[in-house]
Amino acid sequence: MSYSLFQKLSENELDNYLSDIDLALEFHIKWLSEVNRALVCRIESNQSKLIENDNHFSRWYSNVTEEELVTMDAFVRLGEIHEDMIVVSNNLLLNSKPERAVICNEYDEFLQLSNDLRTQIHILKNKIKSDLKLIATIMGKVFENAEEGVMITDSESHILNVNQAFINVTQYSREEVIGLKPSVLHSGNHDQGFYERMWNVILKEHRWQGEIWNRRKNSEIYPEWLSITAVFDDNDIVSHYIGIFSDVSTESEGDERLYHLAHYDSLCDLPNRMLFYDRLRQAISRSKRSDQRIAVMFMDLDGFKNINDDYGHGVGDELLQQVSKRIISMLRETDTIARIGGDEFTFIINDIGDIDSINAIAEKVLTIVQEPYSLHGNAFNISASIGISLCPDNSEDLNLLVKQADIAMYKAKKEGKNRYEYYDTSMG
């Protein structure tokens, strides 16, 4: 697993901890270089400089107090190797004067010890980065005192541990939630589909972040910004999940800010699923009163996963932002585009005159999405598959309309992608 899972919690404290090891190694190398210079050049070494460089390494080693770390074989061996190096180097330096010969066997031993020391440091760093229990020990103080709430679960989402901020926000004690699932906090503001899509993203991308409404023990509903990340064991199997959240319902937050956090996607600043369904509900009501059609479009990007996997989530996120800006620029103010997760977007097209007008919008979306993208000096090409359902032609039920558009979208993918399909009953 990667220690970067803890970076939001620790604000890079663990990274700094590992950097301390690198710094200790750097001073060891300087010390080694000075010893070698004295031996190869046959000059008397600057003993104060040697002592200074060696003290940096010795000081780091002696200041490590975490029991999980100091008892580790690699750490103990590290100290033994360093002590042996001091003894051998002192013997070698006695022979650094021109009139004395360097003892080859001792010099070979000295070089071997140096290689062993660096190998043990490498083992130590890998162990620190891969041992969840050790990371928790090292980061325990940060974990407990972090302003963000933190929850660690097993692979089946049973809660294993929470920190004090979690307790403060949710009002549940540690004992009350250990062994339960995070659903104990569900507010009821999100339907089952929201959680299914969230977990689909987690299982696919091993991470998820966004706004979510949860419920405190006293039944008060509050908004939070939540990040969930999967943790893998040495066999690349998910062993834990880590959830880190911030309560955004503070008094300093205005009502407008809270509304925006609750109803808009943080990445693309588009309406989220909650707001999309609210607007679709209103659109259906207007459609009934005005006897006007509306269209629901479900769009999924073709080829996005490959870019996300090959170039990283950062590039993938920027690409999603560019896609959303392009589409916003071509839609009417009366229409809605929403991002409901990953690379999935939904549209509400209001006041449709005829089918040709829907075709024109769908074709325009496909064209604008397919235009090349330039990010960080690289050119990217993607396309989109769109499914379309009509109200009242297909249904007047908002959930069914979205489901039908989703089914039609998969039909478009199956038929070759970069196209749109209308839902019909033959699709199931």
Over all CA atoms, what is the radius of gyration?
Answer: 30 Å
> Could you tell me the number of beta strands?
12
Could you say which overall geometry the principal axes of the C-alpha atoms support? Answer: elongated
Spans of at least 5 consecutive residues whose pLDDT stays below 50 are 1-12
Which class best fits the helix and strand makeup? alpha+beta
CATH topology of the largest domain: Alpha-Beta Plaits
Q: How confident is the prediction overall: mean pLDDT?
A: 81
- Major β-sheet profile: 5 strands, antiparallel
Number of helices: 17
Order of strands, main sheet, comes to 2-1-5-4-3
Q: Tell me what the CATH architecture of the largest domain is.
A: 2-Layer Sandwich
Please provide the ordered H/E string of secondary-structure elements.
HHHHHHHHEEHHHEEEHHEHHEEHEEEHE
Strand coverage percent: 15-25%
Q: Which features characterize this protein?
A:
12 strands; alpha+beta; five-stranded mixed beta sheet; Alpha-Beta Plaits; Beta-Lactamase; 428 residues; disordered N terminus; single chain; five-stranded antiparallel beta sheet; Four Helix Bundle (Hemerythrin (Met), subunit A); 17 helices
Characterize the structure shown.
The chain is of the alpha+beta class and 428 residues long. The protein folds into 3 domains: 3-131, Four Helix Bundle (Hemerythrin (Met), subunit A) (Up-down Bundle), CATH 1.20.120; 146-253, PAS domain (Beta-Lactamase, 2-Layer Sandwich); 273-427, Alpha-Beta Plaits, CATH 3.30.70.270. It is 53% helix and 20% strand. It contains 17 helices and 12 strands. It has helices spanning 7-10, 13-41, 47-63, 67-70, 73-94, 104-130, 132-138, 140-145, 164-170, 174-177, 192-205, 255-263, 273-290, 304-311, 313-330, 355-370, 398-414, and strands at residues 149-154, 159-162, 207-215, 221-232, 238-247, 293-302, 336-341, 344-352, 373-375, 378-380, 383-391, 419-422. The strands form 3 sheets. The chain has a 5-stranded antiparallel β-sheet with strand order 2-1-5-4-3. A hairpin with a 5-residue loop joins strand 3 and strand 4. The longest helix is centred in the N-terminal third of the chain and has 29 residues, at 13-41. The protein is elongated, with a radius of gyration of 30 Å. The protein starts with 6 loop residues before the first helix and ends in a 6-residue tail after the last strand. The relative contact order is 0.07. Mean pLDDT is 81; it is low at 1-12.
